[in-house]
Amino acid sequence: MRIKFLITTIGVIVLLLSACSGTPDAPPTPTTAPDLSGRVTFAGSTTVQPLADKIGQAFNAQHPDVVLDIAAGGSSVGIQAVHDGTVDIGMASRALKGNEAEGITISQIAVDVIAVVVHADNPIDGLTLSQLHDIYLGTIANWSEVGGSDRDIVVVTRDINSGTRGAFDDLVLDGQEPDAPNLEKALTAGDMAVAVANNPAAIGYVGFGNFEPGIKPLAINSVQPSETAARNGSYILVRPLLLLTGPLTQPLAVEFVNFALSEHGQNVVIENGWVPAN
């Protein structure tokens, strides 16, 4: 009995000494902040829309209680919607002009390469920037004038609200509007790709994320569109892909923009064929 009592007494002493020894307690397990929830609305560029959707899928994997309503309408529509406060995030595929940028926070999430495309069976593999300019203004109207078949050129452009159209007109046409004799308009980037794929005489332009079977990109000034050529400046038809927020944008939407600019978000950009901004 005395041995048992002695062991118990020693145990109590050891516990008391441990408690008084000054050894700090183990740090508490950090608590996880409540997950995000709510609804974020978007409007704007049809080029940015599919990329925003891909980033949104990755965002929702982390925050499943956030509803992302990603509509389109064109860059000009997205810019105006942010000014009006009717959406949280605007999407644009061109630089903002003049007072468009007033009160807007601009976040570039990617660099897009505008590829000039023709039907896959078109024997033409490249054009100079001057030839492209003349085709869209109607000075060159037949493929034979640039080494192709004797066939009238069907010129496909985008709607006036399109950021791709705005960037193309600035980069190729010095701000002028297309004026070719056989001119067609495509509402979206997907419509543009389909229109060219279905017409051997057609020429158009799409972003890198909008390639479709049946079309091929042309070299411009002997440079093929590529990520490397976009980064080193040798390919000149490039434009920014932007997310826009304003004074009425809710904090939840800013969380989405921050995610798009993060390493995770930029990896989504790379995986889906665009050139990352960071």
List keywords for this structure.
D-Maltodextrin-Binding Protein, domain 2, two-stranded parallel ribbon, disordered N terminus, single chain, ten-stranded mixed sheet
What report would you give on this structure?
36% of the residues lie in helices and 24% in strands. It has 278 residues and is an alpha/beta fold. The strands form 2 sheets. Strands 1, 2, 3, 4, 6, 7, 8, 9, 11 and 12 form a 10-stranded mixed sheet that branches. It is elongated and about 60 Å long. The N terminus is likely disordered.
In short:
The protein is α/β, with parallel strands linked by helices. The protein is about 35% helix and about 25% strand.
List the helices and strands and how they pair.
Elements: H1 2-20, E1 38-44, H2 48-62, E2 66-73, H3 75-84, E3 89-92, E4 105-119, E5 126-127, H4 129-137, E6 154-158, H5 163-173, E7 183-186, H6 189-197, E8 202-207, E9 215-217, E10 219-220, H7 227-232, E11 238-245, H8 251-261, H9 263-271, E12 275-276
Helix pairs in contact: 2-9
What is the molecular shape?
Answer: elongated
Work out the helicity level. Answer: 25-40%
**Structural domain count:** 2
CATH topology of the largest domain: D-Maltodextrin-Binding Protein, domain 2
Just give the CATH class of the largest domain: Alpha Beta
Determine the CATH superfamily of the largest domain.
Periplasmic binding protein-like II
Overall pLDDT, averaged?
A: 87
Overall radius of gyration: 28 Å
